[in-house]
Amino acid sequence: MTTLRPDDIAQLAAHGITKEQAEAQIDRFNTGFPWLEVQKAARAGDGITVLSPADEEKAIERWKKYLADGGEVTKFVPASGAASRMFKALFEFINGSTDTPAKGSDVEQLLEHITELALYPRLSETISRLYGTTVDDMLTQGRNRDIIKAIVNPEGMNYGALPKALLDFHSYPDGVRTPLDEQLAEGAQTAAANGQVNLHFTVSANHRDLFSKKLSEAVPAAANRNGLQFNISMSEQRPSTDTIAVNPDNTPFVEDGKLLLRPGGHGALIENLNDISSAVVFIKNIDNVVPDNQRNDTIRYKQVIGGYLIELHDCIDRYLNLIDSAKYTDDDLCEMLCFMREKLCISAPEMDDLKGQHLATWIKTKLDRPLRVCGMVRNEGEPGGGPYIARNADGSFSPQVLESNQIDTSRADYREMMSKATHFNPVDLVCYIKDIHGEKYDLRRYIDPATGFISSKSSHGKELRAMELPGLWNGAMSDWSTAFVEVPLSTFNPVKTVNDLLRPAHMQ
User: Fold this and answer.
1) Domains (range + CATH), the chain
2) Is the pTM of this model over 0.90?
């Protein structure tokens, strides 16, 4: 067993990590995370609900009524990531040995269409400041590397180190908007209640001042445009959710005499989500935004999944109150089981084996928990996790969003299942996180700790192994009640590389 030094224990304590937690992480490196048992990939009509146009309209009306009745809602936006991966091809180019980008490369495409990007005005100012000339002149002179350096390097626009939330994404007649601006606009159109919009951004500590400065400008502008009050909050990933890094032999990785502690991945944000006070929370990645003229489908399907969530919660509320009052009949219990099978895609031996009060008690344990509705889009080759029906620790099966590294791809049947999967997860979900009495669930109780993963990394050239906690919409929500609903691909417009901003969905 690994022995932690007194200095190690003190360092861990300063992060809010106990000796026992660190030792449990080291044990997990030794044992690994178990593969999940997967029953099937969720498909349209079999794990994924496809709402008819009439059902969509009904859900939209229910959402509007929820807001009109003063319903609580917050948009929760993970926004702590730096944009460095967006510019990977650009960094490779400036670190190369030629000023001429490869034919057909991302850099060539970017330079050909540079004037179409929202970042062009800022780039022009930067080029003038750095070189006393224009972008057009530099293109004519073949000074391509200098142009790209002006975009990503610190002495220029520094886009390689800034958070993605603060980059110029979309052009408007009155200026440009960042993803943060567009999240405010989307919130105003989908989640305004009582004249107010609540948004929460998770940010990194080193970018918090930049966010505060941007918000001080963006919020008044959004409030004026929409005639609404914006309530904005921010939080940082907690040091207590950092994980210990280890050497290839699973002993603690020590650098400059100290343990190397790494952020525990986006799954650590379940702690931040747990602090949100609203009953309903929309979760959406910072970069999945479009300009005003492209947002109609986004608005519609935010309302659809929000209303469908409330419809499901209406049923759960009624069922749990019936069970608590002990005024249910056998027909009521049959209706509850039908709801669980058809709407939540739950299957378990208890659904056939238990009767009467024992069945009612079991149903309550399955329904009295946080609820989420996840939008799922048709898979057209985009990377990301997918919707499956998987076994839970209690032996039941239910919908789960899984990443490929959670599935044992050495099994031929699982490889075939994955190859025939029809949908993937665009990280567009809405949650109900209060019980029927209006009390907050402690979301930490519903995490499956056995669903993290281990990856190979390096630090200053030395190989190490790193651990990520169960993902926010994966294992961190493993024990939630879940429904998958099909939404159109037009609602999914992430920006993974800077060239994605040249797609029609990002043009105003």
Assistant:
1) 26-82+166-506 (3.90.550), 84-161 (no CATH)
2) yes
